[in-house]
Amino acid sequence: MDELRLVIFDCDGVLVDSETISNDVLARLLSDEGLPTTLAQARRDYQGLLLGEVVRSAEAKLARPLPAGWLARYERERAEEFRRALAPVHGAAALVASVLAAGIEVCVASQGKLEKTRLSLELTGLRRLFGERALFSAESVPRGKPHPDLFLHAASAMGAPPAASAVVEDTPSGVTAAVAAGMRAIGYAADSDEAALRAAGAEIVHSLDEVPGLLGLG
User: Fold this and answer.
1) Has this prediction a pTM greater than 0.85?
2) For residue 170, which of 153, 149, 185, 155 has the smallest C-alpha distance?
């Protein structure tokens, strides 16, 4: 890699501890529609997907469309649970601060909508660490993860070449996207499938406290 100029963070599961909340709401609402789903099954089948992909997959299993307004209900109930219980991932604020202190740019690139990313960062006190133009959504590019489009878009907007960029991710699809973009991929495996992250091409950490050393920041 070139000298590091940018660190791109996934949001859910890396900066904010949202995956259990999101997938618990998803499992409950899918079960209500006649598709019995546990939290573990929701995480296995849907985590890391775009919401449109979640809907298409669920409808294929149901063999019928979900009701009109179902997705809006999911987003509303998820936001309510975020406001009640969302917390930052341990070490997230210290990690971002250490990258900034080293003179390296940071940004967030998420499959979710920008509104969701902003809400998540605001609720957890992390929003102050990222500039107004440092938040990116897969809705802004032709293809989300595992394709490289989102990370390439973020790096271009932040003025950093891919070879001088690193990505911190917790899903195999995100790691695959980072590798395809020609970026260094760090896989946060505290609550993820370590073998799958490694197979996708990630360097593995089990705590965000390990990332500064891996990046040579001390």
Assistant:
1) yes
2) 185
Whole-angstrom distance between the N-terminal and C-terminal Cα of the chain?
Answer: 18
Please give the helix or strand (H or E) that residue 213 lies within, else none.
helix 211-214
Could you give the C-alpha distances from 158 to 45, 51, 153, in angstroms and in order? 32, 26, 9
Where do we find the tokens 């598709």? 35
Q: Which domains does the chain have, with CATH numbers?
A: 6-17+87-214 (3.40.50.1000), 19-85 (1.10.150)
Structure-derived torsion over alpha carbons of residues 193, 179, 149, 2, reported in degrees to the nearest 10: 130
| pLDDT over 80 (residue 218) | no
**What is the number of alpha carbons within 13 Å of residue 16 lying toward its C-beta?**
27
Q: Taking a C-beta distance cutoff of 8 angstroms, is the pair 180, 146 a contact?
A: yes
The phi, psi pair for 6, rounded to 5°, reads -150, 135
